[in-house]
Write a structure and sequence with these properties.
377 residues, alpha/beta, 12 strands, binds pyridoxal-5'-phosphate
């Protein structure tokens, strides 16, 4: 046992630190796995890293990478995609404000938007196809933003973004988009003010980390930052490192997964037991998207087994929520993504007992199709 006075306790808490020579730098940035930073006397404190909930170099590198890929000035990363959504809305809105959103949204986002009324923020939920009601739903002086997705989760509806933009410009509203499905390399130059991403999905791409981001102009990000510091859903530096690592192969993965998805879509469209296939390759989608992406939804003929039973017939493809990982997964949409919706909305949105959403992975496409083939027999 070490004894008092031999200095071991001090040594253990001030361990030796290797100092790298000039230009002898690691090829990969280190993980700044620290809660706090020692302050230097040589710079104003406000120019320094202080505390990881406020800022951290590993998080900052990821924020700047994401912003560059999405074509925006700045960004903030969070401990989940939902944290990015809730912090953004709470950072921009206050009691008395009103928001517009579509029912075609990721379920927890839709539920949060509805629930904002508890903070005195009202909302109007519209149908994505019903652009005509947008104008009539604006409450002058109160409506502050329009929140949307494209392609939508889970049935891949496409919003006409230039149309939404001119509506927002005319009414002085912010246009906020959850761009998780299309990914940060898409939807540049269409006038979206803030992009939200669940980094859990395509950006990380390996299904092992939960994280999110909001990306936009320096001015708007500055407005959201105090809420990020106050509510404190900070991303862990180690998780940020894993995302930065996964992000390196993002474009390759996205391309390959899109190719696989296209082949699966062609197979499903030709199959007589499939009633409908949803995939964003129509005219409007092609105008806005360079890549249609790796998400495919479809509805089985009602004479076939239920969506849930179909999932359990698959052997390689597993029933799981989430998306954008390297492996193909599937989920019945009515059970997992429609719980909060009225029956009529579910029917209109094609969320039935027989509808499914697939996140197509990186496997050999012939093995993916073979699994569907045996399950459809
Ligand atoms: C998964 C998802 C989210 C939420 O992201 P988490 O990282 O799970 O919190 C938000 N929007 C869309 C479209 C998603 O698919």
């Amino acid at each position: 046992m070490a004894t008092e006075g031999d200095g071991l306790s001090t040594l253990l808490n001030h361990p030796p630190r290797s100092v790298l020579g000039k230009n002898n730098s690691p090829t990969i940035s280190p993980i700044y796995q620290t809660a706090k930073f020692a302050m230097s006397a040589e710079m104003p404190y406000s120019d320094q890293f202080l505390y990881t909930r406020v800022s951290n170099p590993t998080l900052r590198d990821l924020e700047l990478t994401l912003a560059k890929v999405q074509g925006t000035e700045d960004g903030i990363v969070f401990s989940s995609g939902m944290a990015a959504i809730s912090h953004t809305l709470m950072g921009l809105l206050q009691a008395g404000d009103h928001v517009l959103y579509f029912r075609e949204l990721y379920k927890p986002a839709r539920m949060f938007l509805k629930d904002l009324k508890r903070y005195g923020i009202s909302g109007t939920m519209l149908k994505l196809s019903d652009e005509a009601s947008l104008e009539a739903s604006v409450i002058p002086g109160k409506t502050k933003l329009l929140y949307f997705e494209s392609p939508t989760n889970p049935n891949l509806g496409i919003a006409d973004i230039p149309k939404l933009k001119s509506f927002c410009q005319k009414n002085n509203l912010l246009l906020v988009m959850d761009n998780t499905f299309a990914g940060p390399h898409q939807h540049h130059g269409l006038g979206v003010d803030l992009f939200i991403h669940s980094l859990t999905k395509f950006v990380n791409g390996h299904g092992d980390v939960i994280a999110g981001a909001v990306l936009g102009s320096t001015e708007l990000i500055k407005k959201i930052k105090p809420m990020a510091v106050a509510l404190g859903a900070t991303l862990d530096p180690h998780a940020a490192f894993l995302i930065q690592r996964g992000f390196r192969t993002y474009l390759l993965r996205y391309q390959k997964q899109t190719e696989n998805a296209r082949d699966l879509v062609a197979y499903l469209r030709a199959h007589k037991k499939i009633k409908t296939v949803y995939y964003p390759d129509g005219e409007l989608a092609k105008k806005q998207l360079a890549d249609s992406g790796a998400m495919v939804s479809f509805e089985l003929h009602p004479t076939h087994v239920s969506a849930k039973d179909f999932c359990h017939r698959l052997t390689m493809v597993q029933l799981a929520v989430s998306l954008g990982s390297a492996e193909t997964i599937i989920a019945p949409t009515e059970i997992f993504f429609a719980e909060d919706l009225e029956k009529q909305d579910r029917e209109e949105m094609g969320l039935t007992r027989h509808s499914l959403r697939v996140s197509v992975g990186l496997e050999d496409i012939k093995d993916i199709i073979a699994d569907f083939e045996q399950a459809l027999k």
